[in-house]
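> forwarded from #structure-qc
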């Protein structure tokens, strides 16, 4: 196995002593608040700009757009290799996936892991709304390294990569019974930045494919 960018070798991986010299194991360099190690997640740096191009028409119409980040586990690191645009229904503040069976069938057929999601805030700032927190909790329960990328093209900062804190974020959201679109949570530090020095690293040259499952876009 060769790293996606040779300059990352010294930073993120160590040779496996019991394997051939070309084999590597990626080091965990970030941790949850409870001390659990997080595997490094490598993200293509051009993914955001290509996603925003796909979302442009919706963004102009003040409608959110979402995509699913999928990929593979290689040598104790996670690599985003597919951006899937699922069938969806949007408003200015929400984006709901539809026909999720088609998404799951595709991931299963391609042997892909779901590593998180990306969505736009066409007119809002870059933050995790209460709806976003509840949505992301479902991803992070399945995989602690799951990330949420928020793109707010009309604001500064225009994007961010987030995860729920654990503790207190995960428990707070899991125990929350409020249903309003925007509602407060008692804790202040429910989510945090996941980009370096967190567990996410944008890796130049990392290839990925876009798969659009929306009707009329295949």
């Amino acid at each position: 196995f060769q790293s996606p960018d040779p300059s990352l070798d010294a930073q993120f991986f160590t040779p496996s002593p019991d394997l051939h010299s070309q084999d590597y194991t990626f080091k965990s360099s970030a941790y949850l608040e409870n001390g659990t190690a997080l595997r490094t997640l490598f993200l293509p740096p051009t993914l955001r700009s290509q996603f925003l191009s796909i979302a442009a028409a919706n963004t102009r119409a003040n409608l959110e757009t979402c995509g699913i980040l999928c990929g593979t586990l290689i040598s104790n690191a996670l690599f985003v290799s597919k951006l899937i645009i699922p069938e969806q229904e949007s408003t200015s503040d929400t984006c709901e996936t539809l026909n999720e069976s088609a998404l799951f069938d595709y991931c299963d057929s391609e042997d892909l892991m779901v590593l998180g999601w990306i969505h736009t805030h066409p007119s809002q700032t870059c933050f995790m709304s209460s709806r976003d927190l509840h949505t992301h909790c479902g991803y992070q329960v399945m995989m602690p390294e799951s990330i949420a990328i928020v793109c707010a093209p009309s604001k500064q900062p225009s994007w961010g990569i987030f995860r729920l804190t654990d503790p207190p974020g995960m428990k707070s959201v899991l125990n929350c019974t409020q249903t309003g679109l925007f509602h407060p949570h008692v804790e202040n530090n429910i989510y945090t930045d996941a980009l370096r020095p967190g567990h996410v690293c944008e890796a130049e040259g990392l290839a990925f494919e876009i798969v659009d499952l929306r009707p009329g876009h295949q």
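QC bot note: The first strand starts at residue 13 and ends at 15. The chain has one domain: 44-212.
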